Amino acid sequence: MKKLKVGIIGATGMVGQKLVEILSDHPWFEVCVLAAGERSQGKTYEEAMKNKWNSKNELHEKFRSKIIFNSIEDCEKICSMVNFVFCAVNLEEKKTRELEYKYAKMECPVISNNSAHRWTDDVPILIPEINGDHAKIINFQRKRLGTKIGFISVKPNCSIQCFLPALYPLKKFGIKIVVVSTYQSISGAGKTFEQFSEIKDNIIPFIEGEEEKTELEPLKILGTLHENRIINTDISIISSCVRVPVSNGHMATVFVKFNEDVEIDNIIKIWKSFNPINLPSSPKRYIKYFYDNDRPQVKLDRNLYNGMGISVGRIKKESNGIRFICISNNTIRGAAGGSVLSAEFLYKEGYLNG
Predict the structure, then answer these.
(1) Residue 226 CA to chain centroid, in angstroms?
(2) Residue 87 designated active-site
(3) Which CATH architecture has domain 160-329?
């Protein structure tokens, strides 16, 4: 496939850095533009990342001398240089929404890591293995925006991606209610331990907006595409979300109630047969089930299949239900890697043009 030229908007943040790392040698995409706020404007990426680069891997040589553009002021110039952009800005919701519309209306597709457009009716919240058919709503979005190729697609909240893959293939049993508790790492807040002293020897029992996202976003993702809108599923989800002193990796404990009785062996078999789609960033296997009582563990399993796999374990049967534990890498599958996978899917399906 022809390589597409890509921009990263918000390249100096935690997700932006991970996008830079993941895309350093991508077979389909070539990063041509790095953009951020005015404090980084005009600096080389290496200068801007001094004491800020969070990866254990060194910054790739090809990005060191790249000059950083201003995400807002240089929008027109950026759009002329790329085929699409990844957006991972740290702005208030209204400004993020306006910025993403600005790029899309200038015929530059936006693959967003932000939450600003997750509830815009004709913007898909994509997890390609689960709801790839929702991409069809992009055609209606383009009509509304008056664009030929410009559009916005978003990825879901990072914590959702540790448990929703395990729920999706079980829909056929008639999911009635889901009770989920998420234990979210500090990188989900865009912080390191040096920047988050209050988390030391502590668990914080509140993350602003997380419970609403956890309860509502899956309803759209698991919903049904009907012409120019997505009809939410009627599953009831109840959540609690806490911040824990872990650098990276989100865990969830999940209880699911079904309309019918289920067998554990059958559930595990279904998870094992839930194969990934054939894309460059796809994991070897989407869900891996661990039989050991002390697995999955965040430290041991967050990098499963290059951080793109979902780890599940400790399944137990309840009356017409089950409970289990699951883990995903929030900065890769839950953020940058999930966005790259969405872009690969949209390119393969013809929504991104060279």
Answers:
(1) 24
(2) no
(3) 2-Layer Sandwich (3.30)
